[in-house]
Amino acid sequence: MIEIGKTYDLEVIKETEFGVFLDAEDQGEILLPGKYMPDDLAVGDVIEVFLYYDSEDRPIATTQVPKAELGEFAYLQVKDNTPVGAFLDWGLDKDVLVPFAEQHRPMVEGSSYIVYLYLDKQGRITATSKIDKIVCEDNEHNFRAEDKVELIIASSTDLGFKAIVDQSHWGLLYKDEVDQRLSFGQTIHGYIKQVRADGKIDLSLKSGRQIRDAYSHLIHEYLNDHDGFAPVHDKSTPEEISELFGMSKGQFKKAIGGLYKRKVITIEPDGIRLL
């Protein structure tokens, strides 16, 4: 089923002086205006297009690439404020509307906001900045630890940064585990660190392997600088390990386990030693 607000590969079925018509299946024939056509496009060719409504609410195709499609979140800038709401730049000639009733707070021209694209009651593509009613808070998801995901940085809290995970759920990046600058609305790749018992998602900007490698390198460097010995091991207290290396006991055990298997260290009764 072809949906307005999505991207498809469609076949050219008719040429006219003002463009070509594409076979949009259940949506019928949809015009791709000449200004969006490559010069060598001909009947029988297949072309990738985005479908939306023009200023007269007619389905139309474009080769312009939107910053978000129907059912997605994006960080968009306000181009104009009007009596019906704010119009945002989403990458197309026609801007997308955020009605006043769908503004989390009054939008300011020139400022950018995270919005979600949906169809209003008249079937028109519309945006809302009231994203809390869209992003899922429940534990109904299939995310697993180590999954690579796309994140949209949405807000900051005392604990860290709230992010939209793969356009669907909330996740949390803890601020003491973030070693780079993050900005509101930024899209970045990350990883599922863990899914808690209540289904809430903890995130990381590094994979588990990258984190283990970083901690292994830190331990190795410490041993090199301290005559090949560190006075902690897998039976040391979490406080002792944290004070020496700034990592949790679980992270420390995984790191030294890898070093031990690679025959880089030995684990002794009073600590670990570089081989």
Automatic annotation (TrEMBL):
Organism of origin: Stieleria marina
Coiled-coil intervals, chain numbering: none
Taxon lineage: Bacteria, Pseudomonadati, Planctomycetota, Planctomycetia, Pirellulales
S1 motif domain ranges (all copies): 3-64, 69-130, 144-206
Family stated for the protein in its record: Belongs to the CvfB family.
PANTHER family linked to this entry: CONSERVED VIRULENCE FACTOR B (PTHR37296)
InterPro entries in alphabetical order: CvfB_fam (IPR014464), CvfB_S1_st (IPR039566), CvfB_WH (IPR040764), NA-bd_OB-fold (IPR012340), S1_domain (IPR003029), WH-like_DNA-bd_sf (IPR036388)
Protein known as: S1 motif domain-containing protein
GO molecular function, one term: nucleic acid binding
